[in-house]
Every structure is written in structure tokens, then in C-alpha cells.
From TrEMBL:
<dbReference type="Pfam" id="PF03831">
    <property type="entry name" value="YjdM"/>
</dbReference>
<dbReference type="InterPro" id="IPR004624">
    <property type="entry name" value="YjdM"/>
</dbReference>
<feature type="domain" description="Protein YjdM C-terminal">
    <location>
        <begin position="46"/>
        <end position="112"/>
    </location>
</feature>
<dbReference type="InterPro" id="IPR013988">
    <property type="entry name" value="YjdM_C"/>
</dbReference>
<comment type="similarity">
    <text>Belongs to the YjdM family.</text>
</comment>
<dbReference type="InterPro" id="IPR013987">
    <property type="entry name" value="YjdM_N"/>
</dbReference>
<protein>
    <submittedName>
        <fullName>Alkylphosphonate utilization protein</fullName>
    </submittedName>
</protein>
<feature type="domain" description="Protein YjdM N-terminal">
    <location>
        <begin position="4"/>
        <end position="32"/>
    </location>
</feature>
<dbReference type="Pfam" id="PF08274">
    <property type="entry name" value="Zn_Ribbon_YjdM"/>
</dbReference>
Length: 113
């Protein structure tokens, strides 16, 4: 018997193939085999302002003065940020900036070093 993935809706282990679809008999959810094997994390590509692909651990430079919400301070253009981490959401870079601490940035306002 083929080793089929669990249902993405209810995590049932009793999935079966019906033509090109996988079906869960418990909740009735149907999906394709490609959807069932991809976690979505691998296909996520985040690019900087110049179109370069960003990865966890990269170093980037801020290309625009960014106001820090809740304070009167500004992250200046040219600020270097080391060891970024990519996350889901609108602000897709999680990092620590010297003098500011932990911050989230949008990838459209940075360029890869």
C-alpha cells in the first residue's frame, strides 16, 4: 500500500486516492498529491528591493529612512542588518538592529549585501 500523507484539514490517516485526487473519508476534503506533499514553506520566495532572493541568515542594508512605530526615532538609510530571519506576514523579515533591538521589516525596503 502506498504511503499517503495525512489529511491537511483534520489530520486523518485514512486518506485514499481517487484518480488524481487524495480524499479524506472522515471530513470529505479533497486535494491533489502535489498540494499534499508541499508544505508551502519551501515554495515561499522573498525578494529584496532589487529582486535578489533572501534567505535566513543573510545580511541586508536599509534603502530608505524608516520611522519606528511608537517612537520618534528613525532607522537611517544604509543601516546594516545582520543575520535576518524570514517569517510569514506583511513584515516578512525578523531581525535585531543595533540601537533599536528586535524589529520586523518589509523586504521591499532592504537590499542584500
Amino acid at each position: 500500500m502506498a504511503d499517503l500523507p495525512n489529511c491537511p484539514q483534520c489530520n486523518s490517516e485514512y486518506t485514499y486516492e481517487d484518480g488524481s485526487l487524495l480524499v479524506c473519508p472522515e471530513c470529505g476534503y479533497e486535494w491533489t498529491l502535489e498540494l499534499g506533499t508541499d508544505s508551502g514553506e519551501e515554495n515561499r520566495i522573498i525578494r529584496d528591493a532589487n529582486g535578489n532572493v533572501l534567505n535566513d541568515g543573510d545580511s541586508v542594508t536599509v534603502i530608505k529612512d524608516l520611522k519606528v512605530k511608537g517612537t520618534s526615532s528613525v532607522v537611517k538609510i544604509g543601516t546594516k542588518v545582520k543575520n535576518i530571519r524570514l517569517v510569514d506576514g506583511d513584515h516578512d523579515i525578523d531581525c535585531k538592529i543595533d540601537g533599536f533591538g528586535a524589529m520586523k521589516l518589509k523586504s521591499e525596503f532592504v537590499k542584500k549585501i
